[in-house]
Write a structure and sequence with these properties.
The protein contains 4 helices and 21 strands. The protein is mainly beta.
């Protein structure tokens, strides 16, 4: 892990302080204070972080005219990022985590080989994550963390580390990062079947959100060892407990849901997919509509051309109603298309105004 001192394009990097316990710092605003939605996503064309804002939860407008608000080449060892996720902690701060991976680095002249390691490690054989923290959505701390260096005995031959997401664990009073790991190279001699497949893991970070401080552990055991699982999203339920949406690479690969009373273990297997897509999709993210007993499951339909985000809604996490893709239903993207692997949080009117002032777009004027 190393700390970057680079100046991000469009963002100023600032140091951040953290209270001795997350729950004791400046408390996060409540839902009654919320007035808008912030979406983070990336683009295959630039492997960078993009922001979009919606004031009604249906029509999203990209900030900065859909140019990156944080350039991936300032963030990651591989000079590009994928799979950005954003979360507001109980301390009121914002946490972003993303994959340190550029799948077109050779094409863009950033390295001489397709992947940074030989083919025996498999597709997208990265080893690192990027962790970021902010109190205002403008100024961010930035840290790169490498699993093979932090935990060389267990993950020295790691095949990949993808799609990190963050959630607060009240029992640990700590931020939990959960993500997809292929524990060893996909074609590495001596690796077991389980080690060659993508699985879901979790670990805890330090208080400043700079590195992982616990060994990654299995989050979930899928009943069929032949099936790869990835892209988990954990959502606290209003009645207590947690819902975890995730991807099982079946045929087609799609979104499944599991439930547990514990944040990091005990998720039950439910066989059906909830997305109703005829083709494969990935990257589920659950977000709540402000002031409503209704949640949206947003996901990336990567298998269509052009790719797009899909949406389903639920009031009980048992029944899911499809509401289409961007621009073929009630959900609209006003000045951008083909977003990749996104996440949405609620924000206040002041936070939305601050972002729109810092990263103006012609479409929002």
């Amino acid at each position: 892990m190393k700390k970057s001192s680079s100046l991000f394009s469009a963002l100023t990097i600032a140091a951040a302080t953290c209270a001795s316990t997350l729950s004791a710092a400046n408390p996060a605003p409540s839902e009654k204070d919320m007035a808008a939605y912030l979406m983070v996503y990336f683009s295959d064309s630039d492997h960078s972080v993009h922001f979009a804002i919606s004031h009604d939860g249906y029509s999203f407008t990209a900030l900065n005219d859909n140019k990156p608000v944080i350039s991936g080449d300032t963030l990651a060892d591989q000079r590009g990022i994928r799979d950005p996720h954003i979360y507001r902690g109980p301390d009121g701060d914002f946490y972003m985590a993303m994959t340190d991976l550029h799948i077109y680095a050779k094409k863009h002249g950033l390295r001489e080989t397709e992947w940074e390691r030989p083919d025996k490690y498999g597709w997208g054989n990265n080893r690192g994550l990027v962790l970021m923290k902010s109190s205002d959505l403008i100024n961010w701390t930035h840290h790169e963390t490498r699993l093979d260096k932090l935990f060389p005995e267990e993950f020295g031959e790691i095949g990949c580390a993808w799609a990190p997401q963050t959630i607060y664990d009240p029992e640990k009073d700590a931020m939990m990062v959960y993500f997809t790991i292929r524990r060893k190279g996909e074609h590495l001699e001596g690796a077991t079947k389980d080690e060659r497949k993508t699985r879901l893991y979790y670990a805890y970070t330090d208080k400043d959100f700079t590195r992982l401080v616990t060994m990654p552990q299995k989050l979930y055991e899928y009943p069929d060892e032949e099936i790869q699982v990835l892209d988990a999203d954990i959502c606290p339920l209003p009645e207590g407990g947690y819902a975890m949406t995730y991807v099982a690479q079946e045929n087609p690969g799609g979104i499944k849901i599991a439930f547990s009373d514990k944040i990091n273990t005990g998720y039950n297997y439910i066989g059906r997919q909830i997305d109703n897509e005829p083709k494969s999709c990935e990257a589920p993210n659950v977000w709540k509509r402000i002031g409503e007993n209704r949640w949206v499951v947003m996901y990336d339909v990567f298998s269509i051309n052009p790719h797009n985000f899909g949406f389903i809604e639920t009031t009980d996490f048992r029944t899911f109603i499809p509401i289409g893709h961007f621009n073929d239903g009630p959900m609209k993207s006003t000045n951008f298309s083909s977003p990749k692997h996104g996440a949405v949080i609620q924000i206040t009117a002041d936070e939305a105004k601050r972002l729109e002032k810092r990263f103006p777009s012609a479409a929002s004027k």
